[in-house]
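Structure, all two chains, one model.
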Amino acid sequence: EDQVTQSPEALRLQEGESSSLNCSYTVSGLRGLFWYRQDPGKGPEFLFTLYSAGEEKEKERLKATLTKKESFLHITAPKPEDSATYLCAPGGRDDKIIFGKGTRLHILP
Amino acid sequence: DTAVSQTPKYLVTQMGNDKSIKCEQNLGHDTMYWYKQDSKKFLKIMFSYNNKELIINETVPNRFSPKSPDKAHLNLHINSLELGDSAVYFCASSQVDTGPQYFGPGTRLTVT
């Protein structure tokens, strides 16, 4: 059965303190792994798609990486506006993407 | 110029009522989805349509019925509402089945 686990569940960082969020997945025939950001009261906002192990994508202070079993979202020198829930969602052969429960990130000024 | 829009944003109703949520996308995407996000913030797919054809139909009570009048619209009708239906419902769309999905703002349904 396809599964995805995100850790930690919640993370509090000081502004400027870099860290990484983890997404472990078990998916048959990975057809893409997606990262989303969700702010309270809003819909998930698409950030990145990763398709193959070794691939990296960057956007401002965020960098996503992918291995055969995990994906990481690295946050460099975060700012308070980076506070949100970050969702990992691998997609498998059946064209469904499975969302993890997310990591709630809080950046303290 | 909202990409994916949903109406209403909030819906409060009593048990046993029937209600509908509407979704429209102006991205020209072929695939649309309905997701349910429960109180624990877990996002789970309910249905997907590709060009008006039902593709994914997860284990959802048959009180829930999606309808796609055209590929830009996907509505969700819910019969005989129950307390457990309270959640936030998100509509999404994607260019292809395996591509990134773009989400609407959500509809918060509260059943009393």
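The mean pLDDT of chain B is 92.
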